Amino acid sequence: MRLYFPCWSDRVFFLCGVLMLCSEVWKQLVLTFSLGHGAYNWWYFPFQLCSIPMYVLLAYPWLRRESVRRMLLAFLMSFGLLGGIAVFADTSGLMYPLSALTVHSWTWHFLLILIGISAGVVYFQRLRSDAKNVLFSRALSEALPLRPFIHAAIFYLCCCALAEIFNLTLDRYGLINMFYINPDLQMQQVVFRDLVPLIGNLPAIFVYIAATAAGAFLFFLVWNLLFRLIRR
After folding, report:
1. Where do the TM regions start and end (predicted)?
2. Which residues does 82 contact at the CB level (< 8 Å), separation at least 6?
């Protein structure tokens, strides 16, 4: 593995991605055959915000373009970290009829937090070692390199668009609500579901998407603040 992934972070991220993929395959098999009696439940299709880091980790070591790597790291340390933490505001989604699935769900989200923290460390290691990372000016780049987060936010919006395509094309096969933004279903996320009677379901979905991006940006700002404090 060192031949293909000479950097330690590449090896760790890839192994985490493989581990998550194997556990996700196991989860899908259990849900389909143990609980679903052979019928696939599209509600658990693995394309939620908390699922995307798995795909990112599997792809990251193979990508060599620095801007893409930095974007994926920014995604993991902001959106991925948010996905790992936000679920604890309402843990009902972590509970399953089988205790093994419940343990898997809790472990998955704790792992997202650890991966997000690790991605933040790697991100700033790469940022510090790359003197060519410039946005408008070197001083601004070192203080607040926004470009990777902007790219990560665009990546998130693309994932939202793909999730909506899944929602609108696969709903004929069963109940599906990827990213919890299916316009045919009422918003279920805490806080945002209370907005539905006030502004309607579709506007609440857009507010939810915007709030997720804003929350991720807040995490990104905190990371930058920590980096600036450490450098002093």
Report:
1. 43-63, 70-88, 108-127, 148-170, 205-227
2. 49, 212, 215, 216, 219
Q: In 3D, which of 229, 222, 187, 226 has the Cα closest to residue 208?
A: 187
pLDDT tens digits along 129-167: 765 444 444 544 454 579 999 999 999 999 999 999 999
Give the model's confidence band at 1: pLDDT under 50 very low, under 70 low, under 90 confident, else very high: low
36-43 long-range contacts (CB < 8 A, ≥24 apart) are: 40/173, 40/174, 41/174, 41/175, 42/170, 42/171, 42/173, 42/174, 42/175, 42/176, 43/174, 43/175, 43/176, 43/177
Residue among 183, 177, 226 nearest 202 (CA): 183
pLDDT tens-digit series, residues 93-109? 999 999 999 999 999 99
